[in-house]
Write a structure and sequence with these properties.
Blueprint (H helix, E strand, L loop, with lengths): L2 H34 L12 H21 L6 H8 L4 H11 L5 H11 L2 H9 L19 H5 L82 H4 L7 H4 L7 E3 L4 E3 L2
Antiparallel strand pairs: 1-2
The structure holds a DNA duplex (16 and 16 nucleotides).
InterPro entries: bHLH_dom, bHLH_transcription_factors, HLH_DNA-bd_sf, NeuroD_DUF
Protein name: Neuronal differentiation 4
Subunit structure: Efficient DNA binding requires dimerization with another bHLH protein.
Length: about 260
DNA sequence: TAGGCCATCTGGTCCT
DNA sequence: AGGACCAGATGGCCTA
């Protein structure tokens, strides 16, 4: 191999690496968007990739069950479906989220952002915000205000992290519509804030992203999400595992009820 | 220290 | 030839 050829090869490899990085960032962005429409989205305690995919699968399936069977999403079975095949920490997280009723903290959060009770009042007073028959207590297990804002039928864009002066009054950056599995989830976070990686994409050497992306529920001891990394909302309540679910191993289970069956993937 | 999770690099394969 | 996609290898960070 001549030197010129080596250089060409090297240049090609560098370009390919950059493309691959970009491709993976796109994949991660998509995963972040998926996290946002999950029933227990939290910026501070991200689900791992695999858990996000598992929960998404469960979520779609559980909501389908709600539609088909008319069962209450507040039922034990709904939580079971959501937690199927998830790790114990993630199961704890989900179970804990679904036990949360409408939290004043969420409204306070909005008020903080928008400089007064206006936004919070609007949310609480929105005719479609809640209660929503047949759905879990708002915000439907979510930790995000967007879940509360976007209940059934509410089509307006919701920005879960508006810039200081925006407060949902101006056009936010938006790179495309999300397509949540079902609109009844009301979980339409349209604001596309930069992912942790995004803001660090200058490719300063290796793993700078870890400065801001290490908040994963990685506990394997079954500790409840009230620990050091737990979301503030979670720290405030008590959690109980759906015991018949949380300890299932992944990959071999099948779950069925009267209307459909469900096989692990 | 082990294990989990992650981003990145790399070479292979397929497609245009 | 070049781009997209994939999977294996590698090494860093974090938590228990």
């Amino acid at each position: 191999m001549t030197k010129a050829r080596q250089e060409r090869f090297r240049a090609r490899r560098i370009k390919a690496n950059a493309r691959e990085r970009s491709r993976m960032h796109g994949l991660n962005d998509a995963l972040d968007n998926l996290r946002r429409v999950m029933p227990c989205y939290s910026k501070t305690q991200k689900l791992s990739k695999i858990e996000t995919l598992r929960l998404a699968r469960n979520y779609i399936w559980a909501l389908s069950e709600v539609l088909e069977s008319g069962q209450s999403p507040e039922s034990h079975g709904f939580v079971e479906m959501l937690c199927k095949g998830l790790s114990q920490p993630t199961s704890n997280l989900v179970a804990g989220c679904l036990q949360l009723g409408p939290s004043p903290m969420i409204l306070n959060k909005l008020e903080d952002k928008c400089g007064g009770p206006g936004m919070g009042s609007m949310v609480a007073g929105h005719p479609l915000s809640y209660p929503s028959p047949g759905l879990p207590s708002p915000p439907y297990g979510s930790l995000e205000a967007s879940h509360l804002l976007q209940m059934k039928g509410f089509k307006g864009p919701v920005y879960d992290n508006p810039s200081p002066n925006e407060c949902s009054s101006s056009t936010p950056p938006y790179d495309g519509p999300l397509t949540p599995p079902l609109s009844i989830s009301g979980n339409f976070a349209l604001k596309q804030e930069p992912s942790p990686h995004e803001s660090e994409r200058n490719y300063t050497p290796h793993h700078a992203h870890y400065l801001s992306s290490h908040h994963y529920p990685t506990s394997t001891t079954g500790s409840l999400p009230g620990g050091p990394q737990a979301h503030p909302l979670l720290q405030a309540s008590r959690y109980e595992l759906p015991l018949d679910v949380a300890f299932d191993s992944f990959g071999t289970n099948s779950f069925s009820n009267n209307s459909s069956s469900f096989t692990e993937w």
